């Protein structure tokens, strides 16, 4: 079995996918921290909305056919 250009692209695509998931996870953690640390902030609603969208994106990448296992409002 040989690894050609398509094999290298696949490895690069896999690595980029992993980096994207890592960035999304780090963003979720930062937003969760902001929500806990600054609940009275004027930006609270924006952070919560951003967290919801980021979480949805993360789950779509991980399991495109699945559902978000975290209920709304958590």
SS element count, helices: 2
Distance between the termini: 48 Å
Order of helices and strands: HH
Whole-number mean pLDDT: 86
The percentage helix is over 70%
Main sheet summary: none
Strand content: under 5%
Gist?
The protein is mainly alpha-helical and 74 residues long. It is 70% helix and 0% strand.
Relevant terms:
mainly alpha, elongated, 74 residues, 70% helix
What would you note in describing this structure?
This protein is mainly alpha-helical. Helix content is 70%, strand content 0%. The protein is built from two helices and no strands. 1% of the residues are buried. The mean pLDDT is 86.
Outline the fold blueprint.
Elements: H1 5-37, H2 44-62
């Amino acid at each position: 079995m040989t690894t050609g250009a398509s094999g290298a692209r696949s490895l690069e695509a896999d690595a980029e996918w992993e980096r994207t998931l890592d960035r999304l996870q780090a963003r979720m953690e930062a937003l969760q921290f902001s929500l806990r640390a600054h609940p009275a902030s004027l930006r609270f609603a924006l952070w919560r909305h951003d967290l919801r969208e980021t979480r949805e994106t993360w789950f779509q990448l991980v399991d495109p056919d699945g559902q978000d296992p975290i209920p709304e409002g958590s």
